[in-house]
Amino acid sequence: MPLFIFQGKDRFSMQQEVRSLREGVLEADIIFLDGKKVSLGEFEAAFLSLPFLSPRRVIILEGTLNVLNSPSTRKKFSHLAQNLPPTTFVIILDEESRFPLNLCPQAHVKRFTPPRGEKLRRWILSQVEKEGGNISSDAVDILCEFTPDDLGMLSSEIAKLSLYAHGRRIDKEDVIKLTSLSLKESIFSLVDSILEGHLGKALGALHYLLLSGATPPYILSMLCRQFRLLIQAKELMDQGLPPANMCDILGVQGYALSKILSQAENQSCLELTSAYGKLAEADLRIKTGGPPRLTLDILLAELMMRA
Questions:
Q1: Class of the CATH-defined domain 117-178
Q2: Closest Cα to residue 275, out of 210, 231, 214?
Q3: What is the pTM assigned to this prediction?
Q4: CATH top class, domain 215-306
Q5: Burial 166-191 (b: 16+ CB within 10 A, else e)
Q6: Per residue in 18-68, pLDDT tens?
Q7: CATH code given to domain 3-111
Q8: CB under 8 Å, gap of 24 or more: what pairs does 117-121 form?
Protein backbone atom coordinates (compact mmCIF):
# COMPACT_ATOMS: atom_id res chain seq x y z
CA MET A 1 0.00 0.00 0.00
CA PRO A 2 1.58 3.34 -1.06
CA LEU A 3 0.66 5.09 2.21
CA PHE A 4 3.37 5.98 4.70
CA ILE A 5 2.89 7.40 8.21
CA PHE A 6 6.03 8.82 9.80
CA GLN A 7 5.83 9.58 13.51
CA GLY A 8 8.25 11.00 16.08
CA LYS A 9 10.45 13.97 16.91
CA ASP A 10 13.47 13.14 14.73
CA ARG A 11 12.47 15.45 11.89
CA PHE A 12 15.91 15.32 10.25
CA SER A 13 15.79 11.54 9.70
CA MET A 14 12.14 11.79 8.75
CA GLN A 15 12.90 14.32 6.00
CA GLN A 16 15.73 12.12 4.72
CA GLU A 17 13.23 9.28 4.33
CA VAL A 18 10.83 11.62 2.53
CA ARG A 19 13.59 12.64 0.12
CA SER A 20 14.24 9.00 -0.74
CA LEU A 21 10.53 8.47 -1.53
CA ARG A 22 10.51 11.64 -3.65
CA GLU A 23 13.49 10.52 -5.71
CA GLY A 24 12.73 10.62 -9.43
CA VAL A 25 9.54 12.66 -8.92
CA LEU A 26 9.40 16.14 -10.46
CA GLU A 27 8.17 19.11 -8.39
CA ALA A 28 5.03 19.29 -10.57
CA ASP A 29 3.98 15.91 -9.19
CA ILE A 30 4.54 16.68 -5.51
CA ILE A 31 1.65 18.10 -3.49
CA PHE A 32 2.14 19.57 -0.01
CA LEU A 33 -0.93 19.75 2.27
CA ASP A 34 -1.33 21.37 5.69
CA GLY A 35 -3.46 19.12 7.88
CA LYS A 36 -4.72 22.10 9.87
CA LYS A 37 -6.14 23.86 6.83
CA VAL A 38 -6.95 21.35 4.08
CA SER A 39 -10.52 20.18 3.60
CA LEU A 40 -11.48 16.55 3.02
CA GLY A 41 -12.59 17.49 -0.50
CA GLU A 42 -9.18 18.97 -1.33
CA PHE A 43 -7.54 15.91 0.14
CA GLU A 44 -9.73 13.59 -1.95
CA ALA A 45 -8.91 15.51 -5.14
CA ALA A 46 -5.19 15.20 -4.38
CA PHE A 47 -5.56 11.49 -3.56
CA LEU A 48 -7.22 10.68 -6.86
CA SER A 49 -5.13 12.87 -9.15
CA LEU A 50 -2.82 11.14 -11.60
CA PRO A 51 0.87 12.02 -12.10
CA PHE A 52 1.68 14.58 -14.76
CA LEU A 53 5.31 14.11 -15.76
CA SER A 54 6.59 11.47 -13.30
CA PRO A 55 5.97 7.76 -12.74
CA ARG A 56 4.08 8.57 -9.54
CA ARG A 57 2.52 11.46 -7.64
CA VAL A 58 3.65 12.16 -4.07
CA ILE A 59 1.32 13.80 -1.54
CA ILE A 60 2.95 15.03 1.65
CA LEU A 61 0.53 15.78 4.48
CA GLU A 62 1.96 17.73 7.41
CA GLY A 63 0.20 16.91 10.69
CA THR A 64 -3.08 15.21 11.47
CA LEU A 65 -6.10 16.25 9.41
CA ASN A 66 -8.31 18.56 11.50
CA VAL A 67 -11.34 17.43 9.50
CA LEU A 68 -11.10 13.92 10.97
CA ASN A 69 -13.37 15.01 13.80
CA SER A 70 -16.47 12.94 13.07
CA PRO A 71 -17.27 9.29 12.30
CA SER A 72 -18.37 10.17 8.76
CA THR A 73 -15.17 12.00 7.79
CA ARG A 74 -13.03 9.28 9.37
CA LYS A 75 -14.90 6.62 7.41
CA LYS A 76 -14.48 8.63 4.20
CA PHE A 77 -10.75 9.09 4.80
CA SER A 78 -10.26 5.41 5.59
CA HIS A 79 -12.01 4.46 2.35
CA LEU A 80 -9.82 6.84 0.35
CA ALA A 81 -6.64 5.61 2.01
CA GLN A 82 -7.43 1.98 1.24
CA ASN A 83 -8.25 2.70 -2.39
CA LEU A 84 -5.30 4.80 -3.48
CA PRO A 85 -4.29 4.66 -7.13
CA PRO A 86 -1.06 2.64 -7.47
CA THR A 87 0.61 5.75 -8.93
CA THR A 88 -0.07 7.85 -5.80
CA PHE A 89 2.21 7.84 -2.75
CA VAL A 90 0.85 9.51 0.39
CA ILE A 91 3.26 10.48 3.18
CA ILE A 92 1.79 11.66 6.48
CA LEU A 93 4.25 13.49 8.74
CA ASP A 94 2.89 13.07 12.26
CA GLU A 95 5.53 14.41 14.64
CA GLU A 96 3.14 14.45 17.60
CA SER A 97 2.06 10.81 16.95
CA ARG A 98 -1.62 11.75 17.05
CA PHE A 99 -2.79 10.25 13.78
CA PRO A 100 -5.45 7.52 14.30
CA LEU A 101 -3.58 4.54 12.86
CA ASN A 102 -6.70 2.37 12.93
CA LEU A 103 -7.96 4.33 9.91
CA CYS A 104 -5.12 2.94 7.79
CA PRO A 105 -4.36 -0.59 9.04
CA GLN A 106 -2.29 -1.40 5.95
CA ALA A 107 -0.15 1.76 6.06
CA HIS A 108 3.63 1.58 6.41
CA VAL A 109 4.20 3.13 9.84
CA LYS A 110 7.71 4.20 10.82
CA ARG A 111 8.74 5.94 14.02
CA PHE A 112 11.63 8.38 14.18
CA THR A 113 13.06 8.88 17.64
CA PRO A 114 16.13 11.11 18.18
CA PRO A 115 19.09 8.91 19.15
CA ARG A 116 20.40 9.08 22.68
CA GLY A 117 23.53 7.98 24.48
CA GLU A 118 25.71 5.59 22.53
CA LYS A 119 23.37 5.70 19.52
CA LEU A 120 23.86 9.46 19.30
CA ARG A 121 27.64 9.05 19.54
CA ARG A 122 27.58 6.55 16.68
CA TRP A 123 25.39 8.89 14.64
CA ILE A 124 27.84 11.77 15.16
CA LEU A 125 30.79 9.57 14.21
CA SER A 126 29.00 8.40 11.05
CA GLN A 127 28.19 12.00 10.06
CA VAL A 128 31.81 13.05 10.56
CA GLU A 129 32.91 10.08 8.46
CA LYS A 130 30.49 11.09 5.68
CA GLU A 131 32.12 14.53 5.71
CA GLY A 132 35.51 12.85 5.26
CA GLY A 133 36.78 13.81 8.70
CA ASN A 134 37.58 12.34 12.10
CA ILE A 135 36.87 13.59 15.60
CA SER A 136 38.17 13.22 19.14
CA SER A 137 36.16 11.58 21.90
CA ASP A 138 36.06 14.87 23.90
CA ALA A 139 34.63 16.69 20.90
CA VAL A 140 31.94 14.01 20.51
CA ASP A 141 31.07 14.45 24.21
CA ILE A 142 30.38 18.15 23.68
CA LEU A 143 28.38 17.58 20.49
CA CYS A 144 26.22 15.06 22.35
CA GLU A 145 25.22 17.90 24.69
CA PHE A 146 24.75 20.32 21.81
CA THR A 147 21.13 19.97 20.72
CA PRO A 148 20.29 16.25 20.63
CA ASP A 149 16.69 16.76 19.50
CA ASP A 150 17.71 18.67 16.36
CA LEU A 151 19.85 16.41 14.20
CA GLY A 152 19.54 18.86 11.31
CA MET A 153 21.34 21.58 13.26
CA LEU A 154 23.84 19.04 14.56
CA SER A 155 24.51 17.85 11.00
CA SER A 156 25.15 21.44 9.87
CA GLU A 157 27.58 22.00 12.73
CA ILE A 158 29.45 18.79 11.88
CA ALA A 159 29.77 19.89 8.24
CA LYS A 160 31.10 23.27 9.38
CA LEU A 161 33.58 21.66 11.77
CA SER A 162 34.82 19.24 9.10
CA LEU A 163 35.39 22.08 6.67
CA TYR A 164 37.25 24.09 9.31
CA ALA A 165 39.45 21.17 10.39
CA HIS A 166 40.39 20.56 6.74
CA GLY A 167 41.66 17.01 7.14
CA ARG A 168 42.95 17.12 10.70
CA ARG A 169 41.06 15.66 13.64
CA ILE A 170 38.23 17.79 15.06
CA ASP A 171 38.97 18.45 18.72
CA LYS A 172 37.16 19.91 21.72
CA GLU A 173 38.53 23.41 21.13
CA ASP A 174 37.15 23.43 17.57
CA VAL A 175 33.66 22.58 18.81
CA ILE A 176 33.71 25.25 21.52
CA LYS A 177 35.06 27.85 19.08
CA LEU A 178 32.82 27.20 16.09
CA THR A 179 29.46 25.79 17.13
CA SER A 180 26.55 28.20 17.08
CA LEU A 181 25.32 27.17 20.52
CA SER A 182 26.71 30.21 22.32
CA LEU A 183 26.74 30.49 26.10
CA LYS A 184 23.63 32.66 25.94
CA GLU A 185 21.80 30.07 23.86
CA SER A 186 22.96 27.40 26.30
CA ILE A 187 21.43 29.39 29.14
CA PHE A 188 18.16 29.55 27.19
CA SER A 189 18.33 25.77 26.76
CA LEU A 190 18.99 25.28 30.47
CA VAL A 191 16.04 27.52 31.41
CA ASP A 192 13.79 25.67 28.93
CA SER A 193 14.70 22.36 30.58
CA ILE A 194 14.05 23.77 34.06
CA LEU A 195 10.64 25.14 33.08
CA GLU A 196 9.74 21.83 31.42
CA GLY A 197 10.80 19.89 34.53
CA HIS A 198 13.23 17.79 32.47
CA LEU A 199 16.16 17.00 34.76
CA GLY A 200 18.13 15.01 32.17
CA LYS A 201 18.10 17.85 29.64
CA ALA A 202 18.92 20.39 32.35
CA LEU A 203 21.95 18.42 33.49
CA GLY A 204 23.04 18.05 29.85
CA ALA A 205 22.80 21.80 29.26
CA LEU A 206 24.68 22.46 32.51
CA HIS A 207 27.40 19.99 31.52
CA TYR A 208 27.79 21.69 28.14
CA LEU A 209 28.18 25.11 29.80
CA LEU A 210 30.85 23.79 32.15
CA LEU A 211 32.70 22.07 29.30
CA SER A 212 32.58 25.35 27.37
CA GLY A 213 34.45 27.09 30.17
CA ALA A 214 31.59 28.78 32.03
CA THR A 215 32.12 28.85 35.80
CA PRO A 216 29.34 27.91 38.27
CA PRO A 217 29.08 31.52 39.60
CA TYR A 218 28.72 32.81 36.03
CA ILE A 219 26.05 30.21 35.20
CA LEU A 220 24.14 31.06 38.36
CA SER A 221 24.33 34.80 37.68
CA MET A 222 22.98 34.26 34.16
CA LEU A 223 20.15 32.09 35.50
CA CYS A 224 19.27 34.76 38.04
CA ARG A 225 19.21 37.40 35.31
CA GLN A 226 17.06 35.21 33.08
CA PHE A 227 14.49 34.50 35.78
CA ARG A 228 14.35 38.21 36.72
CA LEU A 229 13.51 38.93 33.08
CA LEU A 230 10.92 36.15 33.06
CA ILE A 231 9.20 37.58 36.13
CA GLN A 232 9.18 41.06 34.62
CA ALA A 233 7.93 39.75 31.28
CA LYS A 234 5.15 37.74 32.93
CA GLU A 235 3.97 40.79 34.87
CA LEU A 236 3.93 42.88 31.69
CA MET A 237 2.07 40.14 29.80
CA ASP A 238 -0.53 39.93 32.58
CA GLN A 239 -0.98 43.71 32.25
CA GLY A 240 -1.70 43.26 28.54
CA LEU A 241 1.33 45.22 27.35
CA PRO A 242 2.19 44.50 23.67
CA PRO A 243 5.61 42.87 23.06
CA ALA A 244 6.74 45.90 21.03
CA ASN A 245 6.43 48.04 24.17
CA MET A 246 8.43 45.65 26.35
CA CYS A 247 11.80 46.15 24.67
CA ASP A 248 12.80 49.29 26.56
CA ILE A 249 11.48 47.99 29.88
CA LEU A 250 13.23 44.62 29.70
CA GLY A 251 16.30 45.84 27.83
CA VAL A 252 16.11 43.02 25.27
CA GLN A 253 14.72 42.76 21.75
CA GLY A 254 14.49 40.49 18.72
CA TYR A 255 15.18 36.79 19.30
CA ALA A 256 16.04 37.26 22.99
CA LEU A 257 12.70 38.97 23.64
CA SER A 258 10.66 36.37 21.74
CA LYS A 259 12.46 33.59 23.63
CA ILE A 260 11.74 35.18 27.02
CA LEU A 261 8.07 35.70 26.15
CA SER A 262 7.66 32.10 24.99
CA GLN A 263 9.30 30.83 28.18
CA ALA A 264 7.15 33.03 30.43
CA GLU A 265 3.88 32.30 28.63
CA ASN A 266 3.00 29.04 30.41
CA GLN A 267 4.38 29.98 33.82
CA SER A 268 2.76 31.83 36.70
CA CYS A 269 4.40 34.71 38.55
CA LEU A 270 4.25 32.59 41.70
CA GLU A 271 6.18 29.73 40.07
CA LEU A 272 8.80 32.06 38.63
CA THR A 273 9.22 33.94 41.92
CA SER A 274 9.61 30.66 43.80
CA ALA A 275 12.31 29.52 41.36
CA TYR A 276 14.11 32.86 41.68
CA GLY A 277 14.13 32.45 45.46
CA LYS A 278 15.89 29.10 45.11
CA LEU A 279 18.43 30.68 42.75
CA ALA A 280 19.15 33.40 45.32
CA GLU A 281 19.65 30.77 48.03
CA ALA A 282 22.09 28.84 45.81
CA ASP A 283 23.97 32.04 45.03
CA LEU A 284 24.36 32.72 48.74
CA ARG A 285 25.60 29.17 49.39
CA ILE A 286 28.34 29.53 46.77
CA LYS A 287 29.36 32.98 48.02
CA THR A 288 29.68 31.64 51.57
CA GLY A 289 31.96 28.76 50.58
CA GLY A 290 29.58 26.05 49.39
CA PRO A 291 30.88 23.61 46.70
CA PRO A 292 29.90 25.33 43.40
CA ARG A 293 29.20 22.29 41.18
CA LEU A 294 27.36 20.35 43.89
CA THR A 295 25.32 23.47 44.67
CA LEU A 296 24.24 23.72 41.03
CA ASP A 297 23.26 20.03 40.91
CA ILE A 298 21.20 20.39 44.09
CA LEU A 299 19.63 23.56 42.70
CA LEU A 300 18.48 21.79 39.55
CA ALA A 301 16.92 18.99 41.59
CA GLU A 302 15.09 21.56 43.75
CA LEU A 303 13.83 23.40 40.68
CA MET A 304 12.56 20.12 39.22
CA MET A 305 10.48 19.63 42.37
CA ARG A 306 8.96 23.03 41.69
CA ALA A 307 8.21 22.23 38.02
A1: mainly alpha
A2: 231
A3: 0.59
A4: mainly alpha
A5: eeeebbbebbeeebebeeebbbbbbb
A6: 999 888 888 888 999 888 888 888 888 888 888 888 888 999 988 777 778
A7: 3.40.50.300
A8: 120/144, 120/148
